[in-house]
Task: structure prediction
Amino acid sequence: MSDEKKSCCSNETGEPTATRSAAPMWIIVVTLALLFTGGLFLDSHGGWFDKNVYAPYQSSAQLESFQPKSGAAAAMARGKSVYEGVCGICHNSDGTGKPGQAPALASSEWVTAKGINRLAHIPLAGVTGAIRVGGKDWNLNMAAMGAALPDEDVAAVLTYIRTSWGNKAEAVTADDVKKVRSEIGKSPQPYTGEQLKAMPE
Amino acid sequence: MKTGFCVFLAAFVALGASWLGLVFGPLKQLGVATETKILQSDDKWPVQRTGDATLGLQVYRANGCAACHTEQIRQTGAANELSLVNLGVHQAADLKDFIASLLGTMPELMNFSNAVAGNLAGWDGKLPKVIYSGADDTVISLLGDKLKAVGVKTEARVVATGADIARMGWGVRQSVAADYLYDQPVQLGSLRAGPDLANIGVRSPDLNWQLQHLYAPKSITPNSSMPAFRYLFTVRAKVGGQSSPDALVLPKEFMPAGNLEVVPTAEAKQLAAYLVSLKNNAPLYEAPFTPITAAK
Result:
């Protein structure tokens, strides 16, 4: 009996044993590809497991773009769009300024001053000559970039720069801007740093 | 078994990882949830139920309402909408040309020109008119500004979209975890033999309507397949020929014959109070939309 078995199934001689052998390369490649695709999908659809992000929203940034804007949020959105269109070209979109073009607005004492009188004069009339910002001396000209903008836009953009990038100062209203604009008059002349310093804050 | 420890370790890691992800993680995120803020308002959401309504949840549960009714609104998308509200001095046809020229000349708007032109095609000047509806929120402010400059009034809105939301009265946004904060247990439901009830308190806020509907659903919806919950009501003789103040006012054919009246039991009142408390009408950060305000 045992002889017969041996003759027909010569390879079943004993208990099978596990031996070490390398996993096929294609399994490793397919696994890595699946993991990578899964990672990409999770990244774009998973919302990073944020408890506020429910499908069909896929990320907190997308959810943010669907928040109804009014009041303070609308002013900030407006200020951001004005800033990026008018100011950000020289002052940089993150308020860090550009060497040889414009000083930083982030943590600048001119921007975060208690009152907005000096600050509001700058976009409405422009600046010329030497001015000291954040411990650095600048000597450049800035045109009256805000002179042609409506009061609401100037107020929105000033509010934006006073409360962004770590700046924490009070918001600016359109009435504040109107007041400064009427002080400056119809034909604005750029101020020097000295003149601005002489004004009340 | 020399691999015993490895098997134990593998099983431990597999079960431990799923416990962390499916039990511990969600509990840490939502188990500590508190009331959230309603958008653009200082009010909190959800509103704590009255005593009757809290007990009504248990009546809802005991009567198996969740077998045929869900309490969950689904949403498939969201859109930023810009609509014309007031044309000022302009004529509809001229404005159409003006918008077309804006779309053709402003590089930021060119991507949206087909969408806006499609919305304006065949417009007969009826207001309000939605001119853009889509995911982008920059086009809304850009186009809105340009139209404001020529004296046209526009309104920007955020709307939730989906089949549930398109059914009037079912809800204006999807249900989110915050809505169920005071539900114990949560009555989500999984079958819609009857309509969804997540927003029934807005749809039918009248307690008497709810009570009449519970006693005789067919008296309100002739084809209703909902069973009548008569055992939640007492049919009794009128005292001295006068109806009690609680008695239901029913159409004649649903009234019991004779000198009788139908009064709700405490359970019926609790259930009605619970149904009226179900609302899905507050904009939240996680489920945003622009509420329609009466004065505009």
